[in-house]
Amino acid sequence: MKGKRMMLCLLGGMMLCSGCAARREQAQQMLQQQKEEDRYDSMTLAMDTVINTTIYDERGEELLLEVEQEIQRLEGLFSVTKADSDISKLNANAGKEETALSEETYALLKTSKEISTETGGSFDITISPVVKLWGFTEEEHHVPSQTEIDQAMALVDEDQLLMEENNTAYLEEEGMAVDLGAIAKGYASDVVADLLRQEGVESALISLGGNLACIGTKPDGSLWEAALANPLDETDYVGLFQVSDCFLITSGGYQRYFEQDGKRYHHIIDPDTGYPAESGLLSVTILSEDGTKADALSTALFVMGLDRALDFWRNSDDFEAVLITEDGRVIATEGAAAVFSFEGRDNDFTYETVNR
Ligand code: ADP
Ligand code: MG
User: Fold this and answer.
1) Ligand 1: does its nearest atom lie under 6 Å from the Cβ of 268?
2) Is any ligand 1 atom within 6 A of the Cβ of residue 124?
3) Ligand 1 atom closest to Cα of 125?
4) Distance from the alpha carbon of residue 179 to the mean position of ligand 2, in angstroms
5) What gap in Å lies between CA 231 and CA 250, rounded to an integer?
6) Which atom of ligand 1 is nearest to the CA of 251?
7) Is 43 contained in some domain?
8) How many other C-beta atoms are found inside a 10 Å radius of the C-beta of residue 345?
9) Residue 73: helix, strand or coil by DSSP?
10) Does ligand 1 have an atom closer than 6 angstroms to the CB of 256?
11) Is the pLDDT of residue 15 over 50?
12) Percent of the chain having pLDDT more than 90?
C-alpha cells in the first residue's frame, strides 16, 4: 500500500515536472521570440568610419543613442583633425608646453606606449607626421620624396612622448604628433561593450569599420557568425568565425589606399622605413577579449610580417590571429582555427593552422 502511494506520488511528481518543463519551454520560446523582436539597428558615421550597431534588448532604442553619444564623446577626445580634441591640443603644444589631458586620453596614450615597447616599435603612435606626409590624415594623397620622408621620420620617436604627473603629457619636439588611428576604434569598442554589458544587454554587435565587438551570443543563444573578408575581393569572404563575447579586429592594406603610377600605397606605415609596410601580408585579424589591444596588434602584426607576427603570438597568451599572405595562404593560430571555418569556400587560398 505504502509502495503504491509512493509510486502515485512519484508519477504525480513526474507529471507535474513534465508540465513544468513544457511551460518553461513555452516561456523560453516566448522570451526568445520577444528578444528577437526587440532588435534595434543603427548606422552612423564617426571616427572616420561607418559604425553599425545591433542591440537585442527592449531598451534598444535608448541604448543605441547612448552608444552613439559615447562614440562621439571619444572621437571628441582622440580626433587628430578636430582642433579642440585632447590629441590635437597635445600635438599643437609639441615642443612648447605640457598639455593637461582627460584621464582617459592619458591612459590610452600610456597603453599605446606599452604596446609600442612590446611590439618592438611596429606599433608607434608618434608615426603621425609620416601618416600626414602621405596624405592619409586629410585624404590628400601624395607620394613623398625620400628627403621629405627623412624629415618626417626624424620626428617619430615614442620615447619623446613624455607622460607626466596629473594626466599631463608632452611631445618634446615641435612638429612631433601622435595619431591614435590604429587603437582608438578598438578602445571605443571596449568602452561600448562595457557600457552595454553593464546595462545587462546579453546580445549585441558593434562594427566600427573593420572592428567588430560581439557581446554575448545571438538572442537564441547560438554563436555570432562573422565573415573574414577576402582582401583581394571586397564582395567575397575567405571563411567564417563563430564566436561569443569577443573582439575581432582586422587591419589590411586593402582598406585605405591610393594608387599612383600603377603602384598601391596603403595607410599602415612601417615605422622603420616611413613607407607603407610591405611585409608580405594582405591582412591580419586579431581575436581577443581586449578590444584596445586587438586593434593595436592588428596594425603591429601587419607591420611585422608573418614570421615575426607568429613569434610574437607564441610569446603571448591574450590573443589569437588569422593572417593572410600575399602568396595566398590563410594562416590561423590554433585558438583562431578552433572558431574559424572555411568549409565550402571556393577560392585559390590555402588554409593552414599553426600551433604554439
Ligand atoms: P583602420 O584604422 O583602417 O582600422 P588600423 O587599425 O590598422 O586600420 O590603423 C591604421 C591607422 O593607424 C592609420 O590610418 C594611421 O593613422 C595609423 N598608423 C599607421 N601606421 C601605424 C603604425 N605603424 N603604428 C601606429 N599607428 C599607425
Ligand atoms: Mg589597428
Assistant:
1) yes
2) yes
3) 25
4) 11
5) 10
6) 7
7) no
8) 16
9) helix
10) yes
11) no
12) 85
Cβ contact 310:168 at 8 Å: no
Terminal Cα-to-Cα distance of the chain (whole angstroms): 66
Angstrom distance (rounded) from CA 182 to CA 192: 17
The ligand 1 atom at the shortest distance from the C-alpha of residue 270 is 23
Find the domain containing 320 and state its range.
223-356
What is the arithmetic mean of pLDDT over 133-154?
95
Any domain includes 45: no
Say if residue 33 is in the same domain as residue 106: no
Q: Taking a C-beta distance cutoff of 8 angstroms, is the pair 248, 285 a contact? A: yes
pTM of the shown model: 0.91
Per-residue model confidence as pLDDT tens digits over 84-127 = 999 999 999 999 999 999 999 999 999 999 999 999 999 999 99
Test site for ligand 1: of 47, 267, 288, most ligand atoms within 8 A of the Cβ: 267
Q: How many domains does the chain have?
A: 3
Q: What local confidence, expressed as pLDDT, does residue 129 receive?
A: 98
Reference 54, options 39, 69, 66, 44; nearest CA is: 39
CB 228 within 8 A of CB 195: no
Determine the pLDDT at residue 13.
36
Residue 294 in grid coordinates: 586587438
Give the separation between CA 23 and CA 286, rounded to whole angstroms.
43
Is 136 touching ligand 1 by the criterion CB < 6 Å? yes
Do 134 and 263 lie in one domain? The reply is no
Q: Which three cell numbers stand for residue 254?
A: 586593402
Task: Say what the pLDDT of residue 25 is.
Answer: 78
291 Cβ below 6 A of ligand 1: no
